[in-house]
Each structure stands twice: as structure tokens, then as C-alpha cells.
Amino acid sequence: xxxxxxxxxxxxYQGNISASVPDWLNKGDNAWxxxxxxxxxxxxxxxxxxxxxxxxxxxxxxxxxxxxxxAFAAVVICWVTWAYKMSFGxxxxxxxxxxGPALGQKFLMKQAALPETTHFxxxxxxxxxxxxxxxxxxxxxxxQCVFAAITLILLAxxxxxxxxxxAWMMFVPLWLTFSYTVGAFSLWGGGxxxxxxxxxxxxxxxxxxxxxxxxxxxxYWVGPRSTKDRERFPPNNVLLTLAGAxxxxxxxxxxxxxxxxxxxxxxxxxxxxxxxxxxxxxLVWTYLDVIFFKKPSVIGAVQGMITGLxxxxxxxxxxxxxxxxxxxxxxxxxxxxxxxIVHKRWTxxxxxxxxxxxxxxxxxxxxxxxxxxxxFAEPQLSALFLPVTNSRGGVYGGSGGVQILKQxxxxxxxxxxxxxVTTIICLVVRLIVPLRMxxxxxxxxDDAVHGEEAYALWGDxxxxxxxxxxxxxxxxxxxxxxxxxxQVV
Length: 489
Prior knowledge:
Layout: E1 8-12, H1 17-20, H2 27-55, H3 61-88, E2 91-93, E3 96-97, E4 107-111, H4 137-156, H5 165-187, H6 192-196, H7 204-222, H8 227-231, H9 238-257, H10 265-293, H11 298-312, H12 321-345, H13 347-351, H14 358-376, H15 379-385, H16 400-430, H17 439-444, H18 446-450, H19 466-469
Antiparallel strand pairs: 1-4, 2-3
Helix pairs in contact: 2-3, 2-4, 2-9, 3-4, 3-5, 4-7, 5-7, 5-16, 7-14, 7-16, 9-10, 9-11, 10-11, 10-12, 11-12, 11-14, 12-14, 14-16
């Protein structure tokens, strides 16, 4: 999240029941925080694992699902070893925290001291107050970990169907370390954008804008899919795509609802606004498909759902319900326009092979949501979230116009940092292993890359090979099972 910096100090664990449930522990908030974290984790595993594995061509199902699975596991280890402190620890630079482990096994953690990045007025009052979550540090580390993990998985959506898996294995920890942590610290962990008053309630910039820009940039350096795959890339299972999308949608209750760091009124409002915006955006995208293409598209509806979820994320607990509807209308139409119209006419977008259109669904929708948050952020809710004096959206007058400017500048920082750092990382990785798969792997797919296939079906140009496929062909005209063999239909 989002809210004021979290800077805990240790409280020794004594090994008895009273110490394991100390007086300061808010068990309700702790339960909601762990539930929220798990919901966000389920968005990735199995949510995006299923979505990626089913929305791509059959020959890439295993590879696409595995890219997501690997990223989740790699981020967990990197996060607790050094990256959490870089995002939420003590300041090293105005945009970066000091690296260090978050592996304490013998301590519970509680907010007790002002972070060193806290700003004061001349009269001693606090300009940007600290958060006071009364639960173990482990809950906070895990909650923030699943946000970091899903960012890398969203980024992977731009690279499916051709990135060398070994290059991806190197890319994940490098990008987490040198890109994600910078955005997280700058906007959430007490960095310069946080203290300046840029609002990013739950990751419209830190997660979605960064993954969309970084994914597009990495797609440029990795190169395109094979010509055949770019020309035709049908989902191998639309129903499973909907299952993955459903997990993504329902998991967003934890994504946005957990960000007040407590089970309060704001968390309830954030969950409701999230669903309002997502539903509105899905409907608008579907109506536009019907109006202009004469048919409602299931994949289009999923895209509209995602853009709605992304757009509301930076302002979920900061705007009122009527604003969530307006944001849903815009998130269902503006990314639709950039994907369906602008993309087909802009040479740069045509040259870069962004497999799942992450640039449109996350970068465009994330930046849109951030700017709209600067327009619609309600003053009292803004004060609960970010107590920088007179923070408010543009429609509420006063200094509201300045907030829009802050949102634009914050977005430009995230865009610029990701363009530069993602490029450097890709060039470094390319010195060690090729970023793109060799042509023979691109032709065959999963079986060549992993020695595994998602479905025991002969399609997509495959030919039956008795030495490879044994007795389990569905082509009964070419192969008859021997006595006692199971017929696969």
C-alpha cells in the first residue's frame, strides 16, 4: 500500500501464550491483513497462472503459466532477503531504502517510533504521519510481498510466447531490486513522492503503471513472437481464462481492501468502489465491442474488467461511489480506444510485440486512474490516507488543481525510471544469455522448452508420432490401441 511509512521496532517474543497474544495486538486487523494478503496471493497463484496458461496458444500454455509461477517464488525469497527493506526500510536516497533482511524469527513487531523520513512543520507537528498497524511485522512483510510478486507476473504478460526462460529467471530478481523497490519506497515507504503528496492508494503507479511500461520496454528488447504466432494466437481455453479472471477480480478485495492497514470504514469503501468501477468498465468495453465490431467478446470483457480494476486502484479508498462509476466509464473506453484504434495506427505500438496488451490494460489504465484520483480524491478521505495539508481532488476546489499536477509528475517519474532501468537490465541479461528463444523452440513451444505439454491433444499443426505419443492418440484412424489399452476420446 500506500499509506504512511511503516517502521517497526522489535518486541521480544517470550515463548508463552500471553506474549504470543500481547495487549497491543489487534487480532481483527491482523486477521484481515493476512486474509487480504492471501487474496492477493491467490490472484497470482493460481489466478494469473490459470489466466496466462489458458489465454495463450496451446503450445505456450505451460511456458506462460510457469513464468508466472517462477516469478512468484523468486520474489518471495528476494523480498524477505533484501527487497522489503529497500521498499519500506530506512532511507538510503530520497527514492530508495537501505537493503536488509526481513527474516526475524524471534521477534514480533509493533509501530513505536517515527521513521527517519518523517517530515515536521516548524512548530513540531507531523506533516506526513506514520501508520500504526498493531500486528506482527510478518503480516506486513507478507502483505507487501504479494504485491511485489504480482507486479512481475503482470509484466510477464508482455513477454509470453518467446522470452528465453533462463533470461526471465535472471530478469525477475534484477527488476524487483532496481525498479520495483524504487517505486514502492518513493510512493509508499516514505520517499520523496510520498512526502510531496502524490496519491497512490494501492498501486496504480507502483504496480500497474510500472509493470505496463516495463513490460512494453522489455518486449522491445526481447523481440517479437514468431510471425505465425503474431498472425494467429487464439486462447486455448476461454472458459479457463474466465476462471483466472474471476480469481483476479475477487482477489482485488484484498488488493484494495487491505491497504488502510486495518479493517475500517475506508477498507469497506475501497472494496465497494473496486467492484463498482470494474463492473462499469467491463460493461462499457463490451458495449463498445458490440457497437463497433457487432459481437460481444469474452476476452474483451476480461480486458475491460482488468482496466476497471487497475483504474480504481490508485483511488479506491479516496473517491466516492459516483466517482468510481465515472472512472469505470473512462477505464472501459480510453484503454479500449488505445488498444483497438490507436495501436493499429501507431507504428511504434505495432513494432513492439506486447503479447497481452499490458501497455494498454495496465500502463494506460494505471496512469488514467492516477490522474483521475487527483481529480476526484475527496478531502476527508485524503486526510485519512495522506495527511499532507489540504490534499484534495481538483473537483473540490482549493488546492485540488495542484494535486492533479502532482499525480502527473508522479506518473512521469515511474514511466521514466522504468524505461531506463528496464532497458539497462535487459541489456545486462543479454550479455549472459539470449533474451529471446531460438527459432526451433519458437516453432515447437512447450515441448521444446520444458519437455512438457499442457494437453495430450494433437492439434495446432502437430502430427501424430507413434514413437513420441505412444498409445494415446485421439486420431483413431491412424492408430488402434492394443488389447487392454485405454481409449482416449
